[in-house]
Amino acid sequence: MSETVHPATLGGPERKSVSAALESLRKAQKPSAGAPAYSRFVNRPLGRMIAAVAFVIGLTPNQVTAISAAFTLAGIAVIAAAPPMIVTGIAAALLLVVGYAFDAADGQLARLRGGGSLAGEWLDHVVDAFKASLLHAAVLVSWFRFGPVDGGMLLVPLGFMVVSAVFFFCMILTDQLRRLHRGSSAMILQRSGPTSALYALAVVPADYGLLCVVFLLFGLPVVFAVLYTALFAANVLVLLVCLVRWFRAVRALD
């Protein structure tokens, strides 16, 4: 949310209608390089709509970030506190999905308003860091309180928590080192790497949006446990591949 874009490029604050704001955003989307399927095809369009409405009613990017955090934390609280039932899973999934959509909207709103700020980007990343660990901590609490798994399975959300934290930190650190090397604090918009729909599907196991949707099955504890464990295993593999790619990319900067 830190790139500086002149208001005239995106239509600027004089754009008052939702349709006009949407048209401006369509001309200023981040590249799809590296974006998994749900984030690319579902969450960004949802975030674009939210950003357009937020722009018209006068919300700031930080306010949108706060709304995202509120929905996400509410979903996490439902997972940790309520017994695994169908209604619990639906409520948690909807809250998480809406929170993620607002998370996609804050940066788009910043671009629509003419550029973001370092403080806004900091706030956005802090919220992301919290949810990356808290969501799996909530699963750990739920399984400990309500089952249906044995004690050994509690290592799965614990491991998922570590993988998510490491993945997020390494992704942000790699981006920061690229900025430092380039001598600019502006967010990198032009990234190398695959952009095809096939690639987006291949990396979908690491998509936070997919994890949100999987909680629809939270009320079917055994089914959810199997899918959640499979996602954990897939995320371990994706992390290992990404670590190798990121290390090579940073080494190339030297």
TrEMBL record:
It holds the Pfam family CDP-OH_P_transf. The chain crosses the membrane at residues 50-79, 85-105, 152-174, 195-218, 224-247. Keywords: Membrane, Transferase, Transmembrane, Transmembrane helix. One of its GO terms (biological process) is phospholipid biosynthetic process. It comes from the Bacteria. InterPro entries: CDP-OH_P_trans, CDP-OH_PTrfase_TM_dom, CDP_ALCOHOL_P_TRANSF_CS. One of its GO terms (cellular component) is membrane. Belongs to the CDP-alcohol phosphatidyltransferase class-I family. This is CDP-alcohol phosphatidyltransferase family protein. It comes from Leifsonia sp. NPDC080035.
